[in-house]
Amino acid sequence: MDKKTAEPAVYSVLIQAPIERVWAELINTTSPRPFFWNSRWDTPAMAAGEPYRMVSNQDRTVAVVGQILELDPPHRLVTSFALTSLDDPLSKVTYTLKETAGGTELCLITEDVLAGSASARSMADGSRFIVRNFKAYMETGKVTLGARLQLALFSLMAPLTPRRMAAERWPLGTWPKSG
Amino acid sequence: MTDTLLYVTFLLHMETVSADDERTDAVFQALAHAARRRMLDIVSRHPGISVGQLAAAFDVSRIAVMKHLGVLEHAGLLRSLKQGRQRKLYFNAVPIQAIHQRWTNSYSAYWSGQLLQIKDRAEARTAPKHQGEQTDHGQEDS
Q1: List of residues 6+ apart from A34 with CB closer than 8 A
Q2: Predicted local confidence at residue B9, as pLDDT
Q3: Where are the alpha helices (DSSP H) in chain B?
Q4: Taking CB atoms and an 8 Å cutoff, what residues of chain B touch A100?
Q5: Which phi and psi angles does B50 have, rounded to 5°?
Q6: Are the beta carbons of A7 and B48 separated by less than 8 Å?
Q7: Which residues on chain B place their C-beta less than 8 Å from a C-beta of chain A?
Q8: CB-CB: which of A12, A101, A128 is closest to B79?
Q9: What ipTM does this complex have?
Q10: Half-sphere exposure of A9 toward its Cβ, with a 13 Å CA cutoff?
Q11: Distance CA B115, CA B113 (A)
């Protein structure tokens, strides 16, 4: 039975930084990304076709799983995407970067998200968090005050992370079916 | 003396207008037109609407609609994605959220939200209803 997917949603922001710097921060796999809730890309290589996980909490927690579908530096990164905390099918998240007079236009597009699902709500909130805090991080070196408080709270609550998000349950290359 | 200082501060500020300031100017300019606000109402309720479908809701030329769309896109309030031969339109809420967060905190946002709800409910009860008409808070009368 086909379940209805929502229309794509688009979140864009102008970042006052050169496109190469924004791209380098987006695909940095070596350190936690504050605009991704202090999680880090865990992937054999940032290349199309490779699986990835977003790991945090000393690599003990996996919040997101999927595959890198397209990589066109420094303009476009397309990934399949699933939240490990929820039961929803795989969706698609695209980042596009465009050089503008004032810096770089970062655009985040979510597609194939199950309409009305918990993932749809979570990804809408999350996408706003990402673009806003990506901008703040690039321009000031740190994410917004609200985000810093949220990250501190997450850090305190790490021991209460649901077991279904445990890294051993999500080996690289594991993800739910597409919607 | 104070006036001179203020003037100098103003001039200094003028010289350091950032890309963010320019973008914010563009947002307010884009919102300062009833037709463009209505376009945002329609696109935010119907994400993925085509340019043709949107134009059909307005009693002006397609060129005029395209001009309005250009203003909204320049302000970052609209984004378009190509799907096949169609250009689909999407509302980008981020610039509005940035303005909201600039002048509100969670306390004032809560209470101003409550006041707007009271206003909308009171007006919905007292005003004559018109099909399809909408308030500036984006709620359609039914």
Answers
A1: A133, A137, A142, A143, A147, A151
A2: 57
A3: 2-15, 19-31, 34-45, 51-56, 62-74, 94-103, 106-126
A4: 19
A5: -85, 160
A6: yes
A7: 18-20, 22-23, 47-48, 76, 79, 81, 88, 90-94, 97-98
A8: A12
A9: 0.80
A10: 23
A11: 5
* Angle between helical axes of A118-140 and A19-26 (0-180°, round to 10): 130
> CB-based contacts of B16: which residues, under 8 Å, 6+ apart?
none
User: For residue B92, is pLDDT > 70?
Assistant: yes
Nearest-Cα distance to chain B for A73, in Å, is 20
Chain A residue numbers with beta carbons less than 8 Å from the beta carbon of B91 are 10
Give B104: exposed, middle or buried? Use CB within 10 Å, 0-12, 13-18, 19+: middle
Rounded CA-CA distance B121/A148 in Å is: 37
pLDDT in tens, A106-122: 999 999 999 999 999 99
CB atoms within 10 A of CB B129: 8
Is omega for the bond preceding B47 within 30 degrees of 0, making it cis?
no
